[in-house]
Structure formats: C-alpha cells, structure tokens
Amino acid sequence: MAFNQPKENENHEQRRFYNPYQDLEIQAQKLYQLPTQPEFLFHEESLRQRRSWGENLTYYTGCGYLAGASSGAAKGFVDAVRASEQGDTVKLRVNRVLNSSGLTGRQWGNRAGVIGLMYAGLESGLVKWRDTDDVINSVVAGLATGALFKAASGPRAAAVAGAVGGLLVGCTVGMKHAIKRYVPV
Questions:
Q1: What one-character-per-residue DSSP string does the chain give?
Q2: What distance in Å separates the CA atoms of residue 80 and residue 12, rounded to the nearest whole number?
Q3: pLDDT digits (tens, 9 = 90+) for 78-90
Q4: How far is CA 146 from CA 16, 19, 60, 80, in A?
Q5: pLDDT confidence of residue 92
Q6: pTM for the model
Q7: In this predicted structure, what is the pLDDT of residue 37?
Q8: What keywords sit in the KW lines (predicted)?
Q9: What dihedral angle (degrees, nearest 10) is formed by the CA atoms of 143, 161, 172, 107?
Q10: What pLDDT score was predicted for residue 57?
Q11: Burial of 158 (0-12, 13-18, 19+ CB in 10 A)
C-alpha cells in the first residue's frame, strides 16, 4: 500500500486542468491546423514543379532497389519452400529460406536499383538538354535505359529491352495522368 496518495475520487470535482492557451485569444483547435498547400521559402521554388536531378537519382534508385529486393526476396522464399524435401529439419528449412531469399533479393534489388539510377540520370539529362519537361523525355529515357541495360547481351536483346522500357514508362506516365485527372485526392 502506497502512502500519501489521494484516493481516486477524492477532490476530483475540484480539480481544474491547466490550459496554456487560456490567456491567448486563440482557439486551441485552430492553433494546429496545418496548411494544405506546400510552403516555399522563395518564390522561384514554387514555380519549379519537379524534383532536382539529385533527388531524382535518390528517389528512383531507392524505389527500384526496394521494389527489386522485396520481390526478389518473395521469389527466393517461394523457391526455397518448393525445394524443401521430406526429411529436412526445421533448422535446415529456415536456413534454406534465408539464404535463397537473401541471395535473390540482393540480386534483383541491385538490378532494379541500377535501372532506376540509369533512368533518373537519362531523364534528368533529357530535361536539361531539351529545356522542357514532358512525356517524351520520360519515354525516351525508358527506351534508352532498357537498351543500355541489355546492351551487353546483343543488339536484339537491347532492342527488345528498350521497347519494353519505353512501353513500361509510357504506361506508367499514362496511368499517372489518368489518376491525377479522374481520381479526386
């Protein structure tokens, strides 16, 4: 039993909670309303509607690595579960799952990160070179990224990969514009 502690209901009605805003003529509910528009320090920053090239490199490389590593780890997990045999111990199965997931996740993550890095660099270069930001830059960067990524495999593989890259970027940009237009946010 603790000493010098008041009982739970003793003097509860006489207590008054401290309000630090009582002397200010501000309603506490309006004090923490955050703006819905982005705030900029300089007017020139508000005119720019895209990320800088460094932000693009970081964003696309990170997103590519994360997506590749996650999907590769899932693929490695499925492969390891399928490869398990009847007499395997739990310790052996867990080891197989961890090794397979780690290996495949690392490989896929590195590939997707490199693709993101190449795409971001090419897109930022095209925006700077053409001095405009439109869909053409994105699609051409996707074409060039696919072609460069598979260039060592031969011209046919590079052409196919370039077409796939351009098609994927075109579909992604089209879906982005459709979502902006038709989905209320």
A1: --SS---TTTTTTT-----TTSSSSS-HHHHTPPPSS---SSHHHHH--S--HHHHHHHHHHHHHHHHHHHHHHHHHHHHHHT--TT--HHHHHHHHHHHHHHHHHHHHHHHHHHHHHHHHHHHHHHHHHT--SHHHHHHHHHHHHHHHTGGG-HHHHHHHHHHHHHHHHHHHHHHHHHHHHS--
A2: 62
A3: 999 999 888 889 9
A4: 68, 61, 15, 30
A5: 92
A6: 0.71
A7: 74
A8: Membrane, Transmembrane, Transmembrane helix
A9: -120
A10: 93
A11: middle
Please state, for a pLDDT cut of 70, what percent of the chain lies above it: 84
Locate 71 and state its tokens. 């999907």
What are the structure tokens assigned to 117, written together?
């890095």
Q: For the purposes of burial, counting CB atoms within 10 Å of the CB of 15, is it exposed (0-12), middle (13-18) or buried (19 or more)?
A: exposed
Place of tokens 């309006």: 30
